Amino acid sequence: MATRAKQGQSGGNGTTTDKSPTAVDETKARAAAEGEPKPGQRAEVSNLEIVRHYFDLAVERLELPDDIRTVFWTPYREVTVQIPVKLSDGKVHTFSGYRIQHNGARGPYKGGIRYHPEVDIDEVRALASLMTWKTAVANIPFGGAKGGINCPADQLERDEVQRITRSFMDKIEKVLGPTRDIPAPDVNTNAQVMAWLMDEYGKLHGHTPAICTGKPIALEGSYGREQATGRGCVYMFREAAPQIGLTPAECTFVVQGFGNVGSWAARILQQLGAKMIGVSDATGAIRSDRGIDADELVKHQLQGGGLTEFPGTEVISPDDLLAIECDVLIPAALGGMIHESNADRINTRMVIEGANSPTTPAADEILEEKGVHVVPDVMANAGGVVCSYFEWVQNLQHFRWSEREVNDKLGGVMRRAYRDVSARAKEERISLREAAYLVGIERVVEASRTRGYV
Ligand code: NAD
């Protein structure tokens, strides 16, 4: 197992003391008793607890009976497989692979595959259910699923990742298919991994590009897919900004996690005239009030430079990054990064959640008290799956749209999602997050009932 540059990691495997969902005061008292968490750590509360909390709030408000709640909380199908692979250290390493199909009432299951040592079945369950609500909020005809392998992909050789990927596909192909379940990239998986998945599936079923999305352009991938999640965040910002009196060209912003989502969101926001004044990745954080050029930072990294070595900036601690006074904060790293021990320090007007579950419920309450406008993950980062839908449509027709067409269509879907959720939030005087869950769950329940599934 050879080490190479790390792309995505949890920022130290430690966790903080945030045990939400619980009352904020109770959690604060516990945090104080157990000492200050180290900067840049994730909360102890799991992704599953976070999603469950918002699901419970929504089904309570919708007054769904208990028997029906169980159907929509528990996944339809869970597959766990063993992936033994001989690595370059000469030993056989046994990884666990998961594919969880949460709900397919509105269409084929859809969701990414994550490679990360911290992947476990509960995290995949949480992310699968989040996909069900996300595809419903975006109103695209998919259900929700997620997959993952607990392998340290960022420390493996390319060939090792390829063998793990092919072995995983061989073991789960029976539950996949272009009308059943369509995987996509997530943390530490990319277009190359999708190409291997498609190739392996093709050996058994013939050439089937619609088996997964996020593929390379050379293999019927869609123009605009790589940028889509970051671009979607920017469409959300453009809808939300006038509601709280922000002018895009005059805005400052901070990005936590300068990976696929974070770097594209930054590059596209910059095109609107907004200025990035702080940014981090797993290796550290930097700031500059004069502005940090996101395109130049990407170039610097492609040439092998570390984020903290970017010229003209000051290196700061990960928690000081969150405290920078700015108009927009984009968490785009991993789940649980904004918790009750650091939410107090956040000094922004708007949070756009590029990552999945970056904010714990306790932190969410603090942000609400501070009057921060939070655009929640379940709609803010839907751009990726919306563009995946476009890729699937193009693949089924063996036809290709231009990048402009893709971006325009993406804008249309994202704007509609924001407006639907925002109207519901206003009507019921609730947060955008609660409203998004209401809209998503209602659509899924309606589809299930109309089909006669429940
Ligand atoms: P990525 O691996 O490309 O980027 C993750 C970035 O976060 C990297 O720069 C990594 O260094 C950084 N990071 C890791 N730990 C950190 C820490 N402790 N502090 C600061 N930065 C840290 O992954 P991605 O595809 O950009 O995904 C990021 C998040 O967005 C994930 O939560 C993912 O589930 C979510 N998401 C991604 C997509 C997509 O299309 N890629 C779609 C929807 C949601």
Key phrases:
16% strand, 44% helix, 15 helices, 7-stranded mixed β-sheet, single chain, alpha/beta, binds nicotinamide-adenine-dinucleotide, 454 residues, 5-stranded mixed β-sheet
Strand order of the largest sheet: 9-8-7-6-10-11-12
Q: What is the approximate shape? A: globular
Q: Radius of gyration from the CA trace?
A: 21 Å
Mean pLDDT: 91
* Order of helix and strand elements from N to C terminus: HHHEEEHEHEHHEHEEHEHEEHEHHHH
General description of the model:
This protein is α/β, with parallel strands linked by helices and 454 residues long. It has 15 helices and 12 strands. A 7-stranded mixed β-sheet has the order 9-8-7-6-10-11-12, sandwiched between helices. A hairpin with a 2-residue loop joins strand 7 and strand 8. Helix 2 crosses helix 4, helix 7 packs across helix 8 and helix 13 packs across helix 14. The longest helix is centred in the last third of the chain and has 26 residues. The N terminus is likely disordered. The structure holds nicotinamide-adenine-dinucleotide. The site of nicotinamide-adenine-dinucleotide has 29 residues, from helix 8 and strand 7.
Summarize this entry quickly:
The chain has 454 residues and is α/β, with parallel strands linked by helices.
Present the secondary structure layout.
Elements: H1 24-34, H2 47-62, H3 66-73, E1 77-86, E2 92-103, E3 109-115, H4 121-137, E4 144-149, H5 158-172, E5 181-185, H6 191-205, H7 225-240, E6 252-256, H8 260-271, E7 275-281, E8 284-287, H9 294-302, E9 314-316, H10 318-322, E10 326-331, E11 348-352, H11 361-369, E12 373-375, H12 377-380, H13 383-397, H14 403-428, H15 432-451
Parallel strand pairs: 3-4, 3-5, 6-7, 6-10, 10-11, 11-12
Antiparallel strand pairs: 1-2, 2-4, 7-8, 8-9
Bound molecules: nicotinamide-adenine-dinucleotide.
